[in-house]
Amino acid sequence: MPETNRLSDRRIVNYNRLQSDVAAMNYVIRFAKPSGALGLATIRACNRMISVANRLYKREHGMPQFRLLIEDEPLYLADLQILVTRLTAAGNTFEARYAHYKAEALRKAAEERERLLKLDADGFPSKHP
Length: 129
Fold this sequence. Notes:
Blueprint: H1 9-32, E1 37-38, H2 40-57, E2 75-76, H3 77-97, H4 99-117
Antiparallel strand pairs: 1-2
Helix pairs in contact: 1-2, 1-3, 2-3
């Protein structure tokens, strides 16, 4: 298995922001179910997501690049569904490549919980193991 690159804090933050935007669009598709052409604000929001995704995935081998939407062309729900599905799939692939970050974060959180449980009520380390 090829060695994965190290992720900077900036890339992690950008990935988390992108995923929250994709989740919001996914919510709109699944529950709000807009009809007809979507507005300029939605197209611009999609273009922001696409720009972030392209910057985030440009160094990754085999990751897709996304074409910016043209503001003069109408964007229909089917187009939005395809875009959000592709962004979700790319995010899942990216997350799978860097799963060791998630495992490492879970391990650190468990260690922190254990450390906090060993504190006395006064907040100092317990004298009893």
